[in-house]
Amino acid sequence: MTTQKNTGSDDRFENADLLEEFDGEYSADRTGEYDDAVETPEFLQPGTSPFPEPDRDPVGSDWELEKGVKYLVALDVDGTLVDHDGAMSDEVKEAALAAAAAGHHLVISTGRSRGATLPVCEQLGLESGFAVCSNGGVTLQLDPSLPDYHRVIDAVTFNPGAALDALKDALPTAKFALETADGHFFATERFQDRSFGIQAIGTDIHQLADLDAVRLVVYSSEETPEDFARAIDAAGLHGVAYSVGWTAWLDVAAAGVSKASALEQVRRYLHVDPAHTVAIGDGRNDVEMLDWAARGVAMGQAPDEVVAVAREVTTSVYEDGAARILRSLV
After folding, report:
1. How is 134-160 classified by DSSP, letter by letter?
2. What backbone torsions phi and psi does residue 212 show, to the nearest 5 degrees?
3. Where a domain ends, among 256, 279, 309?
4. Which end of the chain is least crowded, N or C, by CB within 10 Å?
5. What confidence tier does 63 reach under pLDDT thresholds 50, 70, 90?
6. pLDDT for position 246
7. What is the pLDDT of residue 52?
8. Helix, strand, or coil here: 280?
9. Residue 37: pLDDT over 50
10. Residue 236: which CATH number?
11. Within 13 Å of residue 26, how many CA atoms lie on the same side as its CB?
């Protein structure tokens, strides 16, 4: 697997210039000042839940465990492995550890950046293997022998200029953040989110348009989720892949990029039969992944369009639905 780009430029050199430009303004001795200015979206604050109340009973299928088979198991994080406060239950952790001990290939597959994905891998004791980050934009190989315990083996970038032009007109009060292939985040209005994994560097929308991105994030505190979704439709995004979240939140990636596209590369690398793939997720950014897997499982609180592509439905994140599926692999 190799790093892919949609343009001939190397974003690492561009990022270095921008980092140098902002180094003085956002130096280490101003960290506290920056933290005070960080805005936490309402749906990430303690006591608020982005998930609708679960109202589905589990729905099984005719899937059966094949003895001796090592499955590729793709696991979404937020709303699947962890709840809306970012907490992982002991039951989920123990079930994941048991599935890994049985020899299955557990692959974290998330919209989070690498900095916010690696702690989940560590929590599950996944020292080797692979992780898909940024909705498929970045794929990591985990290896304890490496200096940082991982390396990027694939990063698919795109130029966000056209998308930014369309979105800033459709959503004039929105905040924007951009993740680059080298792991940095740049954001307007000091937009910060725990899925970034690191502190974003403040910039403006014009400088964002000059960078290559693995992920562009759009968030609005002014629109309802319904109005936000209508604005996205009206923007008419072309040449990119995108998914709308639970709230007024949008992730944009290069055309053709999804969790499924990255997982397919991992599957081929591991020589796992397509029939031996399992995926568990709850969000709209999991649709392609659940459709890709031979056993696609939707969480109990997933919206209708996610459930529609799944082969099974487990219980909600509040009832350790992921653990229920992981236990079935042991």
Report:
1. GGGTEEEEE-TTSTTSEEEEEEEEB--
2. -90, 140
3. 256
4. C
5. very high
6. 63
7. 56
8. strand
9. no
10. 3.30.1240.10
11. 20
pLDDT of residue 24: 35
Mean pLDDT of the chain: 84
User: What is the span of the domain harbouring residue 165?
Assistant: 157-256
* Three-class secondary structure of residue 129 per DSSP: strand
Read off the DSSP letter of residue 274. G
204 part of a folded domain:
yes
Q: Tokens in use for 4?
A: 């892919």
Q: CA-CA distance, 294 to 265, in Å (whole number)? A: 16
DSSP 91: H
Residue 281 within any structural domain of the chain: yes
Residue 130 domain flag = yes
Please name the residues in contact with 82: beta carbons below 8 A apart, sequence gap of 6 or more: 88, 120, 317
Confidence of residue 3 (pLDDT cuts 50, 70, 90): very low
Same-domain pairing of 136 and 182: no
Is residue 273 domain-shared with residue 222, that is, in the same domain?
no
Last residue of a domain, one of 256, 283, 306: 256
Measure the CA–CA gap between 291 and 301, rounded to whole angstroms: 18
CA 44 to the chain's CA centroid: 15
Residue 51 banded pLDDT, cuts 50, 70, 90: low
Question: For 79-99, how does the pLDDT look when each residue is reduced to its tens digit (9 = 90+)?
Answer: 999 998 889 999 999 999 999
- Do 218 and 143 fall within a single domain? no
pLDDT tens digits along 236-247: 877 778 777 667
Q: Which residues have C-beta within 8 Å of that of residue 71, sequence separation ≥ 6?
A: 104, 105, 272, 276, 277, 278, 329
Query: Distance between CA atoms of 201 and 198, rounded to whole angstroms?
Result: 9
Return the CATH number at 150. 3.40.50.1000
Q: Which of 253, 251, 195 is nearest to 219 (CA)?
A: 251
Domain count, the chain: 2
